[in-house]
Input
Amino acid sequence: MSQIKKLAGQTAYYGISSILGRVLNFLLLPIWTARLEDEEYGSVTLLYAYVAIMLIIYTFGMETAFFRFSRKENEQDSYNNAGTAVLTVSLFISALLFISAPGIASILGEGVQPLYVKYMASILLIDAAVAIPFAKLRLQEKALKFAFVKISVITITILLNLLFIIVLPDILEGKYLSSLSGFVEGFYKKDFGVGYIFMVNLMANALYLPFLWPEFKRLKLKIHWATFKPMLLYALPIFLMGLGGIFNEQGYTMIMDALLGKGNLGVFSSAVKLSVIMMLGIQAFRYAAEPFFFSHSENKEAPALFSKIMHYFVVFNIFVMAAVAINMDLIGDLFLRQAEYKGALYVIPVLLLAKLLYGVYVNLSVWFKIKDKTIFGTYYALIGAVVTLVGNILLIPVLGFYGCAITSLLCYTAMSTLCYFKGRKVFPVPYNFRPLFLYLALGLAIIYLADLLDISNQWLSYGKDLLVTAIFAVFMYLREGKSLKYKTVSTKD
Output
């Protein structure tokens, strides 16, 4: 069977829940931007950036370590070790956050209440607690359950957001169902504002626990030090790499908040949300690729296989980059409900290119994971973090939103370049970048030329953009689509 087609199938199979989950979560953007002021949305963005960073600390690389050592050691032993360690650390840190909530809220600034911090601590505890059970589902290829649980919780999150951010305030204002206004007044407090976003997130996430109860029942709360020690040594560089990686992705929020304020942060974050469209496929690919790369690491044809995976991954995402950038006016009008949130749309092409390079790095990073040299991932992530920190501090005051987007591009360019040159010495993979550079140049040229052709009629402009996208899609398929059938590396299952 074609291994690339097999990986593509796994990407769709295991990643479909992630893609649909992110798409459903993407639907929160018009809800929030329609009803929240830009400073309120900036506060939400800032807090969730800290949540993303803290989740790395809570899980400290144990998911990847569980994948690696479940193949080398006893799976149940690895499951017990990873699950118990993550639960212990999570309970301890969440307790500290609860106790320190007033002080943390004052540090984060105006608009952040201690109760928000407590909500975040509870959300983090649940997200970390279910991380290893979800990893077990992926390892055992229980994709249907994985998808069902993820999509169910995200769907409930969307519905609760609609209820608390849109429906209940409208009832109080008498827009509809005015007969219920007295009942709603009894429990709904309009001045709680963004607090409802965190509250409904916690309510929905709590459903993970009954959904995953069978996996929790199989977890024995014990640590076998002889097998846990090598897992911990493997995981710690992954943990540091994760911290650096999440700072590279979310660090701009803290810096922009300090330099430009929460209002501008909210506007820029809306553009970042739109660029996340490309991250959907990358996230799905990562879900499937991590166990796939480990399972094929001993295959003698692995280097050629990994090269072709990189090729088709980049080809597909160049098209996604072009499609989103060309149609950003249409996408912006659909998802950004207030005009001020569209003030950063012009940086989307740069952000998309940065996300593409991040995807390239995900492919390149295979060598240090399968060769147990995860410390190099830490080096690259920390170098990227330095670029993110210095670049944002220097460029945001001068170039504004562009400075932040360019910094992200420089960060992933540096990480990919360093990873490539070291990797070809340790685990040589015959990547052929020449055609990819040509496709990239073509995609960027089409984005630029499509923008030059200005049509005053909005609907005709949308049609022009969709037509250009369709032509580019046909071209890419004719050039690369059919070759997927004949040129992939195959091995016997």
About this structure: Residues 3-486 form one domain. Residues 486-493 have pLDDT under 50 and may be disordered. The radius of gyration is 23 Å.
